[in-house]
Amino acid sequence: MLGAALIVALAPVADVLPAAAQSAPAGGAQQAPFSPFAPFPSPTPSPAPAARPATRPVERAHVKPHVARPHPSRRKVVEKKKVVEKKKLAERKESRKKLAESKENQREIAESKGYKRVSDLVNFPKFFPGLGIIFVRPDTLPTGPFLCFDRKDHLVATVYMIPTKDIDDHKTLEAAGSSGGPVDHVSFYFNPGHPGVDVPHYHFVIWHVPKKEEARVAQ
Length: 219
Fold this sequence. Notes:
Elements: H1 2-23, H2 74-103, H3 106-112, E1 116-117, H4 118-121, E2 133-136, E3 146-149, E4 155-163, H5 164-168, E5 185-191, E6 201-207
């Protein structure tokens, strides 16, 4: 009885399979039946990556590392301070010296060294406009030096008078020095001649005062 029941149950399936086989095309390839034990297909290999073009490396400017300046040593600082203090001390001494000299009568000092008023030696004005009251040692004529004072007996200039003939003859000239003081500026000009130096000559004027103070001997 069991075998008869199986035959009756499988009869419809047997009828369908021959019909499906008849409906498939004759020349087409038949699909292989799926098997759970068939291996998985191997994956398709990916294409190799394209080679990147070679690029030139970026050139970077060379930057020097910052170097910290060394701090001056304490010894150098002390030495520099000593130099500054020494300079200030010298300036103070010079200032005191000038102050002491300014309190002295410079005309009297010149007379004690043999200088005579030019107006007492030759026919010459006591006050010469532009140079003031002029003193000279007679043994140094005609070159000088001539010391020029203002009306308060302050030395304002030292003058050397050089004949033009001596300049034209290219003579080597020498003259006595003078401790007239610091030099502020110099003037050099022609004079046709005057009593004491009556030949054409040049005045070489060494000013011991600023230019604006030349007015002290202007008149």
